[in-house]
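We close this part of the discussion by returning to an individual protein. Part of our work consisted of pairing the sequence of a single chain with a tokenised description of its backbone. The amino acid sequence and the backbone structure tokens for this protein are reproduced below.
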Amino acid sequence: MSEQLRGAISISDLGVIFNSGGNTLQAVSSATMDVKPGEFVSLIGPSGCGKSTLLNIVAGFVNPTSGNALVDGAAIKGPGSDRGVVFQQYSLFPWLSVRRNVEFGLKMKGIPAAQRVPQARTLLGLAGLLAFENHYPDQLSGGMKQRVGIVRALATSPQVLLMDEPFGALDAQTRVVMQEILTNMWQQFRISVLFVTHDIEESIFLSDKIYVMTARPGRIKAEITVPLPRPRKPEMTYTPEFIGLVQQLKALIREESLAAMGSELKDGGLSGFGMEVGPQGVEKVV
């Protein structure tokens, strides 16, 4: 496969059933989706719908029960250096400096120190972190730690970057800045990205395409193309096109969130207790 076509993800009719203590749980059912080479794709849906499960299958951490998951036409057999992974939790080695964290994957690939150091410093410079190369993770803010994590995932030149709620632990303002940093870095690397998030605005701002999943067992409910031009700028979030996409996605996910919460909520939970409780508390009326 030619270099410019690398990074294609294909998931077809995929199902996942987990077994634990004699109990079975169908997490994903008949899911079909694709990520084209160099495309930024987000997965959104209600909690527990199987978004992270699909990402972990592509990462090689979970095996599907049925269906197929391919990267560049080859079945996924386990983790590989062609796929970088970034989680919500900061997975940095606390005993290594920032630069040595970034060098770690390069070292595992057998790249000599004379090459590792300039490569790591170049990447840190792109992320605005070169001044912190000799700091340790506990000296960094949450946003800086996650930038280091992204840079470390990119250091080994993967064809696919897998991101599971990478900004979920950040405050709102830092999260917005990190979204802009990520989209700017992606513009330079143009590798394929599969991005899991609960944040609708985040998915629109970052993505070329968004897949909406149903409540468990997760299926693909909708495929939404994001028609916004690149590079993405924060002021785009105020445009009618952006706001219209937010409303469309909120409507789709609301249906699935209600389904995920159960029939009791759908049948009347949103209308209140159905009684006047008052300041005396529930024990006075039960």
Remarks:
- The longest helix spans residues 240-261.
